[in-house]
Q: What sequence folds into this?
């Protein structure tokens, strides 16, 4: 399947078979990490990582991915860039920057969220504008709307668990599993991207989904329409509740994470302190060992970093049924697969 030159900005942009190609290659790369067949896929090529927002996992996993494919990843932060033009300030246009970068690099990864933005959706639009003008693949390393690399890593980790291991992984094992995506209180005030992006992909896997959140913490209406339609097409279901306990009953997967409210931006500014203060008013919205006892021996999953003691109890995050570290490890292999297929010299 030809993925050469393709942008990955949202999983919804790709056919499910294309996404499965990425996942299946990621499995092989994880099973046989240092096989010589991977070592020259990005030989003499450089991947640019543009970080408007900080990162641990994304930075390290992409840099390692490029290196293990025989290439190099260059880190670029806003204070090292030319000033970019905005609606109110002069500077270089995205069109000019994208076209110039395309002469140097084999691909561009962009990460932009929360405090780097003045309104919801602005980061996603910026990445799409880079993709419009770049002559090389553009990869969304996390924006304010979705996080495709994390979503693919989530699904890969869950399938490993329910298949009984990586060497016998079967992604159809996820069909009709019950997934609870629950809002959690916490002091990190984070974008909708990881849970919302996960729902976009999970809803294409035939999973029965329950979203639990307090009033005022709904996801993007347009995204929810898409998620509902994905469920209809895949044979899954979608249920939305405002109860902090009921969704745990007979769940197979518990995904707990804090996300910002519908009022997170005001007058072009991200209201971080107000968001934190508001979130901490809901102490019942935490994943506890007692709540996990209501599940069908569910796995606990989270994209990390975790606000331990607020989003989830330590005893759950560190339990035998926690897949947080395996999911995090999958970021490397999923991203190696993405780089290999979209901008490398990769042959099936």
A:
């Amino acid at each position: 399947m030809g993925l050469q030159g393709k942008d990955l900005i949202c999983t919804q942009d790709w056919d499910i078979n294309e996404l499965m190609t990425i996942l299946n290659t990621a499995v092989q790369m994880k099973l046989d990490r240092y096989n010589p067949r991977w070592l020259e896929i990005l030989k003499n090529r450089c991947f640019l990582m543009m970080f408007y927002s900080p990162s641990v996992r994304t930075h390290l996993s992409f840099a390692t991915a490029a290196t293990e494919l025989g290439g190099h990843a260059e880190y670029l932060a806003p204070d090292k860039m030319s000033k970019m033009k905005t609606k109110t300030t002069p500077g270089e246009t995205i069109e000019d920057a994208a076209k110039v970068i395309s002469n140097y690099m084999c691909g561009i990864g962009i990460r932009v969220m929360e405090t780097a933005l003045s309104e919801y959706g602005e980061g996603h639009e910026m990445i799409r504008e880079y993709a419009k003008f770049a002559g090389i693949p553009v990869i969304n390393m996390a924006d304010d709307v979705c996080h495709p690399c994390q979503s693919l890593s989530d699904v890969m980790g869950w399938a490993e668990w329910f298949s009984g291991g990586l060497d016998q992984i079967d992604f159809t094992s996820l069909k009709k599993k019950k997934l609870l995506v629950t809002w959690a209180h916490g002091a990190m005030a984070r974008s909708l991207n990881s849970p919302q992006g996960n729902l976009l992909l999970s809803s294409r896997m035939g999973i029965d989904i329950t979203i639990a959140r307090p009033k005022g913490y709904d996801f993007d209406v347009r995204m929810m329409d898409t998620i509902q339609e994905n469920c209809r097409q895949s044979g899954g279901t979608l249920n939305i509740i405002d109860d902090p306990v009921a969704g745990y009953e007979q769940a197979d997967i518990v995904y707990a994470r804090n996300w910002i409210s519908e009022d997170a931006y005001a007058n072009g500014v991200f209201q971080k302190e107000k968001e934190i203060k508001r979130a901490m008013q809901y102490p019942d919205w935490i994943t506890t060992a007692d709540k996990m006892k209501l599940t069908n021996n569910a796995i606990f999953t989270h994209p990390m970093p975790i606000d331990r003691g607020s989003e989830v109890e330590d005893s759950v995050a560190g339990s035998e049924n926690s897949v947080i570290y395996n999911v995090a490890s999958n970021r490397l292999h999923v991203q190696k697969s993405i780089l290999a297929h979209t901008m490398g010299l990769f042959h099936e």
About this structure: Residues 324-343 form the longest helix (20 residues).
